[in-house]
Design goal:
Elements lengths: L2 H9 L3 E4 L6 E4 L9 H14 L1 E4 L6 H9 L4 E2 L6 E2 L2 E9 L22 E10 L7 E5 H6 L3 H7 L3 E5 L20 E5 L1 E3 L6 E3 L6 E4 L4 H15 L5 E4 L6 E5 L3 E5 L7 E9 L6
Parallel strand pairs: 2-3
Antiparallel strand pairs: 1-2, 3-15, 4-17, 5-6, 6-17, 7-15, 7-17, 8-14, 8-16, 9-10, 9-13, 11-12
Helix pairs in contact: 1-2
Length: about 280
């Protein structure tokens, strides 16, 4: 525990327990349906950026309460083409019907990195879970960056990568009402600095990144292939088994994630994302 974490622990009743050596933590002692105290807010804000993923068990939270909790951390993101919860456009529906296979395989990704200002963080609530399967895995991009050699770190810090929504397309979620919306592409630094911890993290992902601007096509493909296999090494990862009442809150700048599609039953999740007004991307 850092000195900063010790200070937060003294000011709140929260219990934050690391899930793995590199990524994720379980949080106890907080009811997300109730207003946060200033001390709890500051402790959670730092822990989110420090651990990358926070997991809250046994939470009974309404859609309005999920929005209220997330809005404490910043302005909320409205996804441009994925269906939302009726009456709450901030809540994106991540839904799979029983027996329906996804049209495309969802690869490792951070959320909406093709936008000029991708979400800083996402808050995902389990609503309807399959009896077996459907876990989510996160990887720490802090750990991935820090494990690189010093020459590689220096080389990457001068580069920019293009992120394009068309890589995964509009997925199976796209509704007819949004069929005419243009998919975006944006260049971001390959290495970003988290605004809260000051730590550096890799910011490329196979879900949306297409190429590195400053390199030739061959150089870009080779470097990205290396980074993709490097940044999801098992020692950088945390796998969450969802249970009823589970909420996961992750920093989109310093992690990426993968939904495990090993189930055939229905699965429904409610996601709220927070805009990255202070983020360096």
């Amino acid at each position: 525990m850092t000195m900063l974490e010790e200070g937060f622990a003294a000011a709140t009743s929260l219990k934050i327990r690391r899930a793995t050596g590199a990524c994720g933590a379980y949080v106890e002692g907080v009811d997300l349906s109730a207003p946060l105290s200033d001390a709890d807010f500051e402790a959670l804000r730092y822990a989110l950026h420090d651990h990358g993923v926070l997991v809250f068990r046994d939470q009974a939270v309404t859609p309005a309460q999920q929005i209220t909790f997330a809005a404490r951390f910043g302005r909320l993101h409205v996804h441009p083409f994925v269906p939302s919860y009726p009456g709450h456009p901030e809540i994106m529906l991540i839904k799979r019907e029983k027996g329906v296979k996804p049209k495309k395989v969802i690869r490792w990704h951070a959320d909406s990195t093709w936008e000029p200002k991708p979400p800083l963080a996402s808050l995902l609530k389990a609503v309807d879970l399959p009896p077996v399967g459907g876990d989510t895995t996160w990887a720490s991009m802090y750990a991935a960056y820090e494990a690189l050699s010093e020459p590689m770190k220096r080389f990457l810090e001068g580069l920019h990568a293009v992120h394009d929504a068309a890589v995964q397309g509009r997925l199976e979620h796209l509704s007819a009402d949004n069929a005419g919306k243009e998919l975006q592409a944006t260049a971001h630094p390959v290495v970003v600095t988290d605004p809260v911890t000051g730590r550096k993290a890799l910011f490329v992902n196979p879900g949306y990144t297409t190429h590195i601007v400053e390199l030739s096509a061959e150089e870009s493909a080779a470097l990205l292939a290396y980074l993709y296999q490097h940044q999801t090494r098992p020692e950088f990862c945390f796998r969450l088994h969802w249970e009823p009442g589970t909420i996961a809150f992750w920093c989109n700048l310093v992690t990426q994630h993968l939904a495990i599609g090993d189930y055939n039953e229905a699965r429904l999740m409610h996601r709220v994302a927070i805009l990255c007004d202070e983020a360096p991307c």
